[in-house]
Each structure stands twice: as structure tokens, then as C-alpha cells.
């Protein structure tokens, strides 16, 4: 449940346009709803300003559809990550307005979207990094940031990155995705005065060790404005960038 919805409910009670019983019934699922196989944290939006997100990997299509539809029923925007085609078909049957982002392996439903707060730039070194970058971009957009996407600007052709320097310097936070040796965040961090969230991707040949080489390179970056998330964690990077971009939220 969104904070705004709770405030409106309390205003209706104060104005005597609803009853205490109706309010109690509406709040009955707070702070969580027990589905047996999952306990949905409907209280999360009130605590952190953003709702619970579904990690679909390892869940059945039916489980993802049930969780998605129950979250959607509360009026929040809903995001499911790491979905496959079967997950998407099941959720679409339950919640027809849902949008399937096949490249990013995400499902999203935007409900009562907030006015954009802050500007997040999401860039990636190569086209092979696009699925992770797009997961970050979709996350940031759904939860209220304005997003600029910049693709295929790796260090093998640095002029491509420098051509977008104005965009980088207008950002409030930057998500930088790279595989191979993971050098791009170090370069970006040295060009801007904002936080850079580095995302190592599992892109590269054998010695890249499915993203471990990029992860270690990013952890050892000399630009002090860089922070690093886990391998292929575009969602986490997009989430953190959104929090940074929108600034403190006071209750």
C-alpha cells in the first residue's frame, strides 16, 4: 500500500466519509499478506517509498502470477525480474495490462506513477551488456526517475563515450554496466561529480570467469565515487541509483 493511499484513507475517516470498520478491513493485509508459499510485504512502500519486487527465478509461473496480482491489487507499481516466457504468459493472463520486457527479462506494471524525481543515466560498455543495463533502466523508470540510456560506449572506442559527456554530467546518478575487464566505470567515475554504480556483467571469454574479472576490476577502481553491486545485478543498481537521484524522502 502506498503512503498516499493510507493518508487518504485516514482523511476519509476524519471527514466521516468512511467507517472505522471499513478502514480496519482495508488495512487488514498490513504489514504482510500470507499466501502460504510467500508472505507479501505490503508495508514496504510505507517504510522505504518503493514496493516489494518479485525475483521470479526459481518460482513457478503460477506463483509469480499470484504474487504479481496480489501486489497489483494494492495499487502499487509492480516489478518482477528474471522472468522467462512461461512466467510472462501466466502473469499476462492474470494481469492483462502488464508489460513484458523480453530483453531485460522483466515484467512491469505502472500504477499511479510519481512525477519523475532526479535523472539517472544508464550506460553499458557493449551491446552484450544491454540485458543488464535495460533491467537497471526499467527499474529506475518504474520507481520514479527520469532515465537516459547510452549503449555501446566501451573503452575500446573511448570517443563514443566522450561524445555523450554532456549527458553524463547532467545526471544525478549513473549506472555503468561492463563485462570483460570491467574498465568502463573507472573512466566514467573520473569524468563526473556524481555517484557511479558499477555493474559487472557475466560477459567475456574464459578468463573473465563469468563476471568475476570485471567485479574485481571494479572493486579496485581508483575513482572514489564508484560503488559496486553484484554480477549482473542491474535491478540493484537501478534501485540504488533511483534512491540517490530522488534525494531524501521525509515522512
Identify the CATH architecture of the largest domain. Answer: 3-Layer(aba) Sandwich
How large is the radius of gyration? Answer: 20 Å
Shape estimate: globular
Secondary-structure element order, as H and E?
HHEEHEHEHEEEHEHHEHEHEH
Q: State the name of the first-level CATH class of the largest domain.
A: Alpha Beta
Helix content: 25-40%
For the termini, the CA-CA separation is 15 Å
Task: Count the beta strands.
Answer: 11
Low-confidence stretches: none
Tally the helices.
Answer: 11
Q: Largest sheet, if any? A: 5 strands, parallel
Give me the side-by-side strand order of the main sheet: 8-7-9-10-11
Return the CATH topology of the largest domain: Rossmann fold
Any idea how many domains? 2
Structural class by SSE content: alpha/beta
* % residues in beta strands: 15-25%
Task: Tell me, rounded to a whole number, the average pLDDT.
Answer: 90
Key attributes of the depicted protein:
251 residues, alpha/beta, Rossmann fold, 2 domains, 5-stranded parallel β-sheet, 4-stranded mixed β-sheet, 38% helix, globular
Layout of SSEs?
Layout: H1 3-14, H2 20-26, E1 33-34, E2 39-40, H3 44-48, E3 54-55, H4 61-72, E4 78-81, H5 85-94, E5 99-101, E6 106-109, E7 119-124, H6 130-142, E8 146-150, H7 158-162, H8 165-169, E9 173-178, H9 184-189, E10 196-200, H10 212-219, E11 226-228, H11 234-246
Parallel strand pairs: 3-4, 7-8, 7-9, 9-10, 10-11
Antiparallel strand pairs: 1-2, 4-6, 5-6
Helix pairs in contact: 4-5, 6-11
